[in-house]
Amino acid sequence: MLLKDKVIFVTGAGQGMGRGIAQAVAEAGAHVVVSDLRLGPVQETARLVEAAGRRALPLMADVLDSQVVQSAIRQTIETFGRLDGWVNNAGVVKMDSALDMAEEDWGFQFEVNVQGLFVCCQLAARQMMAQGGGGAIVNIASNAGKVGYRNMAAYNASKAAVINLTRSLSLEWAEHNINVNAVCPGGVDTPMLLGVAEWLTQRLGGDPHELVKTMKPNQMNRHIQPIEVGRVVAFLLSEQATIIRGQSINVDGGDTPY
Ligand SMILES: NC(=O)c1ccc[n+]([C@@H]2O[C@H](COP(=O)([O-])OP(=O)(O)OC[C@H]3O[C@@H](n4cnc5c(N)ncnc54)[C@H](O)[C@@H]3O)[C@@H](O)[C@H]2O)c1
Questions:
Q1: pLDDT grade, residue 192 (50/70/90)?
Q2: In a domain, 213, yes or no
Q3: Which domain holds residue 58?
Q4: Is residue 155 flagged as an active site residue?
Q5: DSSP letters of 157-218?
Q6: Has residue 77 been placed in a domain?
């Protein structure tokens, strides 16, 4: 019960990692605001949060629309009275070789993965400062931001930006008792990972479901599940993690040694 009765907001919570994070923070005792581009999927996530005995608020919010995000924060305060933690999980990948990548695909990945994430950090931090008492933010980066995978140049660079931004925000907001960290997952069993496998098999042949089965950490003979990433996120959101600040923690089963 690391997050007992805390109020945590998760973006991109309609499927995949965001849903697992919502479940994990509920398991740790938090009430959860679950937001995504469409309402149906977050209503399903909300049911899972409620099944864990916690309250959920499903909301439709595009992280690219700051007014909508601001209104989602208002609804959070109306419903729960405060905001203790924020998880920037919404993210996109558009695969292509660096030579062929379209400018708009580069821009789109930076818009969602970096700019949208930054604006959410800013709005969440303003709310935490206004209400007093501090809070915590966890950004979902990727080990792609450290390693750099083929056919993902923009995604890799956008996640590297998230890693660096996390350090800057941690430094600037420490005096407000807001702790900012990131996690760097490797391959996690989500629709995004299947999408990557589909892109690869369309070009190289083979079955995407078979390829996905091979996308496991070297040191583990199984996939990482979203809720496992979520449990690390829950810890980083808690007061137990106060001495971890501005870090980007690998949650990739040991694949990235730095
Ligand atoms: N799956 C992996 O292997 C993996 C590895 C490392 C990092 N990540 C990161 O984890 C996060 C979640 O990934 P996932 O695998 O669950 O992906 P996913 O594509 O399965 O889910 C992403 C969710 O984000 C939502 N989203 C996208 N754009 C949005 C926007 N503008 N506003 C609000 N919501 C938006 C989508 O609707 C979707 O529900 C992403 O930031 C991703 O880059 C994933």
A1: very high
A2: yes
A3: 7-188+226-249
A4: yes
A5: HHHHHHHHHHHHHHHHHGGGTEEEEEEEE-SBSSHHHHHHHHHHHHHH-S-HHHHHHH-S-T
A6: yes
What atom of ligand 1 comes closest to residue 144's alpha carbon? 6
Q: How far apart are CA 198 and CA 204, in angstroms?
A: 10
Assess whether 216 and 152 both reside in one domain. no
Q: What is the pLDDT of residues 31-62, one digit of tens each?
A: 999 999 999 999 999 999 999 999 999 999 99
pTM for this structure? 0.98
Same domain, 89 and 125: yes
Distance CA 133, CA 201 (A): 50
Ligand 1 atom, smallest distance to 187 CA: 3
8 A C-beta contact, residue 137 and residue 124: yes
Best mutation site among 62, 92, 120, 222 for ligand 1, i.e. most ligand atoms within 8 A of its Cβ?
A: 92
Q: Provide the pLDDT for residue 111.
A: 98
Q: Identify the pLDDT of residue 210.
A: 97
Residue 113 inside a domain? The answer is yes
CA of 175 relative to ligand 1 center, distance in Å? 30
CATH number at residue 169: 3.40.50.720
Q: How far is the CA of 93 from the centre of ligand 1 (A)?
A: 8
Q: What's the total number of domains in the chain?
A: 2
- Which pLDDT belongs to residue 98? 98
